[in-house]
Amino acid sequence: MEENFPLAWSLTIGTLLLIVFLVKLLKDRRERVDGRTSKLPPGRRGWPLLGDSINWISSVASSHPPRFVEEQVKRYGRIFSCSLFGKWTIVSADSTFNRFIMQNEGKLFQSSYPKSFRDLVGKNGVITVQGEQQRKLHGIASNMMRLEKLKLHFLTDIQMVMLQTLNNFQNNQVILLQDVCRKVAIHLMVNQLLGTSSESEINEMAKLFSNFVDGCLSVPIRIPGSAFHTAMQARETIINKINKKIEFMKRKQPATESGSNGVLGRLIEEESLPDEAIADFIINLLFAGNETTAKTMLFAVYFLTQSPKALNQLMEEQDKLRSATSDDPVMLTWEDYKSMAFTQCVIDETLRLGGIAIWLMREAKVEVQYEDFIIPKGCFVVPFLSAVHLDETLYKGALNFNPWRWMDPENQEKRNWRSSPFYTPFGGGARFCPGSELARLQIALFLHYFVTQYRWTQIKEDRMSFFPSARLVNGFQIRINKRADEVSVSMH
Ligand code: HEM
């Protein structure tokens, strides 16, 4: 017994030392984590595992998406932290920090999407690639859709599509405007990207594309029948179609008629991208440009319907551009487009209030110090654009549709959507929307052909919802009448 005494002592002391060491290790770790946490922007953890995910979803699904963000801003300030979908997230309603995040794309932050989304839109597309590859593809996209190209290639084609898709409504016909806008937008995209104008081909693409988009917003389960599975199949079919077009275009002589082969044709002629990168490039543009443009068209008509004064002023401006001698629509010129001052205000106000891109998804690439905060590497970072757009201190009567605000000389600098930190409907920095000018042209021409040809009345009350994507809950049903007929009725 006595012989074993020193051994027992050493074991006890050893165990005690080990316990002390482990406790210290844990304490140190906790202190380190707490030390860092205290440098995160203030915020809360919410429920275990869930964090604030449910609050977040129910808020962005409501008719006022920044609600949750506004509540947290009141408690913690414009930059706060919370736990979303199992991850620490820094959310910003601060225009200066939002700009900092966007300007540092690829350096301190990078865009971040779930794998299922990357599988769908393609790993070679501009939306999902990073670094040098992103800069290259972004440059090509910006070049394809710059102003000179719009004048040369897009202006007439867009109007042909408008005449084709908006000409066939009967008097007293009831239409669901979101379906019409979706159809117009997909016609525009397919026509301009692939150079296709055959009605049957466009309709087939529209169906495939609608399946594809629904899958991007669905639960990513790949079992037959699920929205995600259907979307992956649609993606494959679309890619096959694009590849066949590439083959065909490469075999025949370069197009002589301007714009007849769409962006795809010009891409093959002017750039040197491998075929699989071309197909993903086109599918990325289709994805980024279709729903966004369709929603803006829809919301513009929705807001105008609620604001007869704005609608009358817009009609007046657009009627001046119609032929004085004939009821038939005339093709507008670039000068006509440039003269639509009030229409541009309507578009800006729709983008501000309608919140087409409500927030952006980013991830810290490295540990980032901003003011007194330290954002750990890998943390989600969400610049919440629409919280700035709906900030009452920046926009008086922020929740009202007021296109005249953009005519106020005080707002001219704020309005510059390329550089203003207060108005960023097209994002900013290295991922600034390369289709912004094209989208504005499409929306202005849509409004022209819609308001100069038709009058409408809303049938049902509606409300807006933003999740899974911005939409009108009951559907924006309107009864439509041809204006030419109205004029002749009132004349007799
Ligand atoms: C009203 C319509 C539109 C809105 C509000 C809009 C908005 C945006 C925003 C906010 C971004 C930045 C995303 C980010 O930083 O993560 C973006 C990126 C992009 N947009 Fe648009 N967009 C519109 C129309 C279009 C159109 C018509 C096209 C092309 C046909 C297009 C192509 C793209 C592409 C390719 C990107 C990704 C750029 C990159 O990641 O480098 N967009 N858009």
Set out the fold topology.
Layout: H1 5-37, H2 53-60, H3 67-76, E1 79-84, E2 87-92, H4 95-103, E3 109-111, H5 115-121, H6 131-144, H7 147-166, E4 173-176, H8 177-194, H9 199-216, H10 227-251, H11 262-270, H12 275-306, H13 308-319, H14 334-338, H15 341-354, E5 362-364, E6 368-370, E7 373-375, E8 380-383, H16 385-389, H17 412-415, H18 436-453, E9 454-458, E10 464-465, E11 471-472, E12 477-482, H19 483-491
Parallel strand pairs: 2-8
Antiparallel strand pairs: 1-2, 3-5, 4-12, 5-8, 6-7, 9-12, 10-11
Protoporphyrin IX containing FE binds near residues 134, 138, 285, 427 and 431.
GO molecular function: heme binding; iron ion binding; monooxygenase activity; oxidoreductase activity, acting on paired donors, with incorporation or reduction of molecular oxygen
Cofactor: heme
InterPro entries: Cyt_P450 (IPR001128), Cyt_P450_CS (IPR017972), Cyt_P450_E_grp-IV (IPR002403), Cyt_P450_sf (IPR036396)
What does this structure look like?
There is one protein chain. The protein is an alpha+beta fold and 492 residues long. It has 2 domains: 1-38; 94-168 and 177-447, Cytochrome P450 (Cytochrome p450). It is built from 19 helices and 12 strands. The protein has helices spanning 5-37, 53-60, 67-76, 95-103, 115-121, 131-144, 147-166, 177-194, 199-216, 227-251, 262-270, 275-306, 308-319, 334-338, 341-354, 385-389, 412-415, 436-453, 483-491, and strands spanning 79-84, 87-92, 109-111, 173-176, 362-364, 368-370, 373-375, 380-383, 454-458, 464-465, 471-472, 477-482. A 5-stranded mixed beta sheet has the order 1-2-8-5-3. A hairpin with a 5-residue loop joins strand 10 (464-465) and strand 11. Helix 9 (199-216) packs across helix 10 and helix 10 packs across helix 12 (275-306). The N and C termini lie far apart (123 Å). Residues 23-35 and 487-492 have low confidence and may be disordered. The structure holds protoporphyrin IX containing FE. Protoporphyrin IX containing FE (HEM) is lined by residues 111, 126-127, 134, 138, 141, 284-285, 288-289, 292-293, 296, 351, 356-357, 360, 425-427, 431, 433-435, 438-439.
